[in-house]
Amino acid sequence: MAGLTFDPDRHGELFSAYLDGQLTPEEVMIVSELLDGDEEAIRDFVALRKVRASLRLLPEFEVPAALLPDGHLGDRLSAYLDGELVTLEHRRVTKHLVDCVECRAELQELDRARIAVRSLPGVETTMTGEIPATPVRHRRRSIVAGGIGAAAAAALLVGLAMGGGDEPVLVLNDLATHHMARASAEPGFAVLPSAIEVVAP
Amino acid sequence: MTDELAPTWEDVAHRYGRKIYNFAYRLTGNPDDAADLVQEVLLRVRKGLPSYQPGSFDGWLWRITRNAFLDGIRKKKRRPESALPEGDHHALGSSPSPDEVLSSIRLSDDVQSALLKLPYEFREAVVLCDVVGLTYDEIAEATDAPVGTVRSRIHRGRKLLRGMLTWPV
Fold this sequence. Notes:
The complex is a heterodimer of chains A (201) and B (169). Chain A is mainly α. Among the domains of chain A are: 10-56, no CATH class; 76-166, no CATH class. Chain A is built from 8 helices and no strands. Chain A has helices at 8-19, 25-34, 39-56, 76-81, 87-99, 101-119, 147-160, 173-185. Chain A is rod-shaped. The N and C termini of chain A lie far apart (88 Å). With 169 residues, chain B is mainly α. Chain B folds into 2 domains: 1-83, Rna Polymerase Sigma Factor, Chain: A (Orthogonal Bundle); 118-169, Arc Repressor Mutant, subunit A (Orthogonal Bundle), CATH 1.10.10.10. The N and C termini of chain B lie far apart (43 Å).
């Protein structure tokens, strides 16, 4: 390659690609030879290097946080408890729960609430709106019927048995109204589960 | 991404959101357009992930990003020639000395201004290479162009920038 003369149009592109580490070994040899003493080639190379550096040193902007999800599981937790997530999604959620204290706490709270709500007695009214004197059976979904997801969630909760935490406070106005009406109509009728505190509207 | 599980869109948002935002910001010089693009890309990723076939995730993502960007331009019926933002006040990482900060802001404004004067294909190639940090192969995949064309566009873009920029001696 002796006597190689620098041609800005032909060789400039090699300089750019050289700076990006995108040349073949043969092309690298050509660049080396051009930069070995050819002042015009060196000037061209240095100028391109400055342009490239100025682009790469442009400050990076932070993406506005509102555009990104908060990274937690949100409404997928309820679906997880109810065994409604398909296999891959279920694995992802389980993986996230292992790492995320916040979502574990939320899952635990959701499960308590879910159990509490399902423990409430069913209420039937007559056509006139009166509450019947005889208790009705609790409509409680069996853990088996809850599916693999619910069983897995229960197992997970056992594994997650974390210390303390405040009991969940639920606003269950409609359910509570029915329940208290039932309780007053039937002395001795079960009180609300202790995990739930009914908050007045 | 070589995880055995395909990424969730939340993973994509956290891992690539900033890159997508900066890509659009440098192409348009406009933070609102950049924010719009991030939202649009994440929406498309969410819709597209179920049918994503394991392969070059970056190529797939940046093709989506580029198409979303070009669709946005078509919708607005204008080329991305927006005015410059007011300095780089919310940029990350600035030099400690006030003089250096001022000089750096001026320079980055100059570079941004020069970028906006480049023909779109050159600007896109330069931004994907120098701002986003893609390889020539990844840029070729994202822009649906041969690698040789990508190489030529990057060089011609830088060469034009060189003619527009001056550096303090």
